[in-house]
Amino acid sequence: MLELIISLVLNVSAVANVPIDFDVRSTENERVYAQHAVGKSGQHYLLFNLNHMGEVSDYKKKAIVAHEISHAMVYYETGKTSMKHGFEFKKACKKIAEDSNVPFNKACKRSH
Ligand SMILES: [Zn+2]
Q1: Ligand 1 centroid distance, CA of 36 (Å)
Q2: Tell me, what's the pLDDT at 109?
Q3: d(CA 11, CA 7)
Q4: Is 17 exposed, middle or buried (CB count within 10 Å of its CB: 0-12, 13-18, 19+)?
Q5: How many angstroms is it from 69 CA to the middle of ligand 1?
Q6: Looking at residue 55, what is its pLDDT?
Q7: What was the pLDDT predicted at 80?
Q8: Distance 81 CA to ligand 1 centre (A)
Q9: Per-10-residue mean pLDDT for the chain, 112 residues long?
Q10: Architecture of 2-107 per CATH?
Q11: How far is CA 107 from each of CA 19, 24, 28, 60, 72, rounded to the nearest angstrom?
Q12: Where are the domains of the chain?
């Protein structure tokens, strides 16, 4: 499962020209499918709950990956770590969703 998610992260970030190096890891946090985090060194982490990710279609997995990469892109461009889904998030997510061929509504809505 983690290998599949890593390949989705590489694919989406390549087609959307996202200039960020991600460390992809699993999380035991039951409350999320996925989340973006930034370490003290500036390293970006994409954390995925592998149980939850295993329950959704590959198409939905790709939308979730696009959503989290959008959070990373907002941080990269603005320096803000935010769980919010405001203007900057929607702008980044719209482009990444279009480039990676997933619907805006699936990738960019509030839910994690
Ligand atoms: Zn989000």
Answers
A1: 8
A2: 86
A3: 6
A4: exposed
A5: 9
A6: 97
A7: 79
A8: 11
A9: 97 98 97 94 96 96 97 92 84 97 92 64
A10: 2-Layer Sandwich (3.30)
A11: 19, 18, 22, 8, 14
A12: 2-107
